[in-house]
Amino acid sequence: MPRVPEAPWSALPREVAAVMRPELPALADEIVAAVSAAVPAYRRPLEGAFGRNLRIGVEEALRQFLELVEGGPDAAERPGREVYVNLGRGEMRAGRSLDALQAAYRVGARVAWRRLRSAGERAGLSPSTMYALAEAIFAYIDELSAESVEGYAREQAAAAGEQQRRRRRLVALLVQDPPADAAVVAALAAEAGWPLPAALCAVAAEGADPDRLAIRVPADWLVAPAAGVVCLLVPDPEAPGRRAELAAVVGEAPYAIGPAVGWTEAAVSFERARAALRLAAEGAIDADGPLAAEEHLVELLLAADRKLARDLAERALAPFAGLTESARARLLETLRAWLDHQGRTEAVARALHVHPQTVRYRLGRLRDLLGAALDDPERRFELALALRVR
Asked: CB of 108 within 8 A of CB of 175?
C-alpha cells in the first residue's frame, strides 16, 4: 500500500511558529486590505456582514496554519474545514462564480509569503526552512481552495435539487384537472425560474427515467412523473427542429405528443398525449415512431367513453352477429374499405387485393344484412364509427 505523503508544514521546525506568531494580527489586516483592493467582486466597504466574514475567514486561516506548524509531525487533522466549505457555499448563494474566491486565496498567499519571508530573514531562518515555509503556505492555500470548491459544488447540487422539486410541483399543477389557480401557477413558475410560455405541448413518455430526462432536456423544458408516465412540457412546440430535438431527448421510449395549447390548457394536451399512448399500447392506434395525438382525434373521442362506444358498435354491427367468424371478418373488412373509398368498386378491390367481382358479391351480402343503412348518411357515419371502435 503506497505511503501517504506528509503535509509540507509537518517538516517545518518549531522555531517557525515563534517567528510567525507576532506577525499574524498585522498580517490579517494586510491580507484583508489586499483582497479588498485586488479582487473586484470584494471591492466594497468592509463594514457589516461581508467585512466580518472576510476577516473571520482570514484570521481563522492564519490561526489554523499556525497550529499546524506548532504541531509539527504530530499535528492532528486540520480542524475548522467547514469554514471554507461554507465560504464556497456563500459564493454560490451570492450568485458569483468561484473566480473571486480563488483570486482572494491567491492574493492572501502572496501577501502572507512576503510578510513571513521578511520575518524569517530577520530571525535568521535558513534558506531550506524558508523554501519549506513557502511550500507549506501554498499547499495550505490549495487545501482551503479545494474545500471551498467542495462547498460550492454542494450548494450547486442543493440548489439544483430544490429547483427540480419546484419544477416537478409546477408540472403537477399545470396538468391537474380541474386546473389550478393561474396566480398560484404563476407564483410557483417564478420560484422555479420557468417563464410561462405563450404556447406549449405536453408529451407523455412510457418507461423513461425522469431524472435522466431532466438532465438531457433544454433548460426551458419541464420533466416530471405524472399519472403513471413521464410528462414533458415543451414550450414553443411549433419551433423548427422541435420534433427532432424531442426524439433525441426521449430516445427509444414510446411517447405521444399532445396538441399545442396555451399554458392554462396544459392539462388538455397532457391528457390527450397520455390517452394516445395508452391506445397505442392497446393496439387501437398504429404507432410507428412518435405518436401525435392530433392525428387520432376520432380514436381519442371514441375512447373517452368506452362503454358508450361499445354500445354504439354492438348496435350498429348487430346484423353481423349470426355469421361465422371468418365470414364476419371478410364482410366487415369490405364494409370499411367501401366506406373509406366512398363506394368506388375498383378502389375497394385494390385496397383489399381482390377482384372487383368479389367486391360486388360481398356488397350484395352487405345489402342483405344492412338494407337501407348503406344509403343513409347518418347510418353510414354510425357504421364507420362502429368499425373504428371494433
From this structure: no
CA dist list (Å): 80 to 25, 53, 67, 129:
19, 14, 12, 26
Q: What pLDDT digit, counting tens, does each position of 225-276 carry? A: 999 999 999 999 999 999 999 999 998 889 999 999 999 999 999 999 999 9
- Is the backbone peptide bond immediately before 178 cis, with ω within 30 degrees of 0? yes
Three cell numbers written together for 71:
504541531
319 touches 369 (CB < 8 A)? yes
Distance CA 286, CA 114 (A): 77
pLDDT in tens, 13-64: 888 989 999 999 999 999 988 988 888 888 776 666 667 778 888 888 898 8
List, edge to edge, every strand of the sheet that includes 255-257: 222-226, 229-235, 200-205, 255-257, 291-292
Measure the CA–CA gap between 37 and 32, rounded to whole angstroms: 9
Tell me if 362 sits within 8 A of 330, measured CB to CB: yes
Per-residue pLDDT band for 172 (boundaries 50, 70, 90) equals very high
Residues 278 and 283: their CA atoms lie apart, in Å, by 9
DSSP string across 39-102: -GGG-S---HHHHHHHHHHHHHHHHHHHHHHHHGGGPPSPS-HHHHHHHHHHHHHTT--THHHH
On whether the CB atoms of residues 9 and 69 are closer than 8 A, the answer is yes
Nearest to 86 by CA among 41, 151, 34, 134: 151
DSSP summary character for residue 286 = -
Domains and CATH numbers, the chain: 8-159 (1.10.490), 197-304 (3.30.70), 306-389 (1.10.10.2840)
C-alpha 182/C-alpha 165 separation (Å) is 19
What is the C-alpha to C-alpha distance for residues 236 and 23, in angstroms, rounded to an integer? 63
Contact 228, 275 (CB under 8 A): no
* Long-range CB contacts for residues 55-63, cutoff 8 Å, separation at least 24: 55/28, 56/83, 57/83, 57/84, 57/87, 58/28, 58/31, 58/32, 58/108, 59/24, 59/28, 61/108, 61/140, 61/144, 62/24, 62/27, 62/28, 62/31, 62/112, 63/24
- Asked whether residue 288 carries a pLDDT value surpassing 90, the answer given is no
- Asked if residues 104 and 148 have their Cβ atoms less than 8 Å apart, the reply is no
CA distance 68 to 307: 80
Q: Any idea which residue has 535568521 for its cell?
A: 124
